[in-house]
Design goal:
By secondary structure, the chain is mainly α. Helices cover 79% and strands 0% of the residues. It has 5 helices and no strands. Helix 2 packs antiparallel against helix 4. It is elongated and about 85 Å long. It starts with a helix and ends in a 5-residue tail after the last helix.
């Protein structure tokens, strides 16, 4: 058996990516999606458009992360997909912690 036949019968496995790559790109997609969503909200508010477009603009970070998940999964990068899911979970955790901290501050505030 020649080396060409051996290479054809035993293809190299696809690069599954790394969890760190997916994590960092997931956070980057969330941040860039937030910036683009804010820009889109500013443009929509100046144009005086409906509230449905505000909802669409607020979903931009979620759409960016889901698009990254689909892109990595179509390329067969299972570890990178797992990293993006970890990034999305950490974004939810940071959001919950920030909301909890703000509620704690407001609960202890004296508004008199």
């Amino acid at each position: 058996m020649t080396t060409d036949q051996l290479a054809a019968s035993n293809p190299l496995p696809a690069n599954p990516g790394t969890i760190l790559e997916g994590f960092l790109l997931g956070w980057l997609a969330g941040i860039v999606g937030s910036v683009l969503g804010g820009f889109f909200m500013a443009v929509v508010s100046m144009a005086g458009a409906s509230e449905a477009l505000f909802l669409l603009a607020s979903l931009t970070p979620l759409v960016a992360v889901v698009a990254l998940l689909i892109w990595f999964s179509r390329q067969g990068k299972s570890r990178a997909v797992r990293g993006v899911l970890y990034a999305f979970g950490s974004m939810i955790l940071v959001f919950v912690l920030l909301v909890g901290g703000l509620l704690l501050l407001f609960a202890n505030a004296d508004f008199r």
